């Protein structure tokens, strides 16, 4: 049973920042190598889900961890408010279209879990509908994993309430971050406890497990995400394809 209040948002006290940053560089390079093998082999794909409260570092993780991956093999998609056409379909209709094809890594910056989290927190769906959607999400992810050889990595960017306040204030006071400022982020912050309950529900009812990533220190965030991805992709035993027989 995952309880976010039991998990620190900071690195372990004995974590050595310099050593971990050096190891992260190695892992990021290795991830780039694995991405190229995946692209060449075309037998697997990877779906990387980045979820978290506003200011938790989803954009930064995508930028830093995939820095050594080639652009042709990695795609990022951010889910916004559904269009009228999307609203007219089931909630996973627009998501399935974005699933990665074999050979590709697809990063969801926010994801299909928004259709449980945001809508449940604001009372737009009830408990029964949230439970139904959770079952549909599990079936969808299992379909990708077992029918299309998609490795699924789900990361929750675990930020503290106080650290989020600092991150949101930086968007007001630092010129290069003004473009990120959204007054709505402060309104969503008022529902913090409700979001934590909904996240915990999603974690504890997921078939494919989540990685809870402490993100108050960005250097530790990048390390955990990179390490989890490299270890998972190496288990696929991917190989460059041989020359075709003439």
Describe this structure in words.
This protein has 246 residues and is α/β, with parallel strands linked by helices. It has a single domain (16-234), classed as 3-Layer(aba) Sandwich (Rossmann fold). Helix content is 49%, strand content 13%. It has ten helices and five strands, in the order αβαβααβααβαααβα. The chain has helices at 17-41, 58-65, 84-87, 93-96, 114-121, 127-147, 161-173, 183-189, 192-204, 218-234, and strands at 45-52, 74-78, 105-109, 150-158, 210-214. The chain has a five-stranded parallel sheet, sandwiched between helices. The radius of gyration is 19 Å and the shape is globular. The mean pLDDT is 95.
Question: How would you briefly describe this protein structure?
Answer:
This protein has 246 residues and is of the alpha/beta class. Helix content is 49%, strand content 13%. A five-stranded parallel β-sheet has the order 2-3-1-4-5, sandwiched between helices.
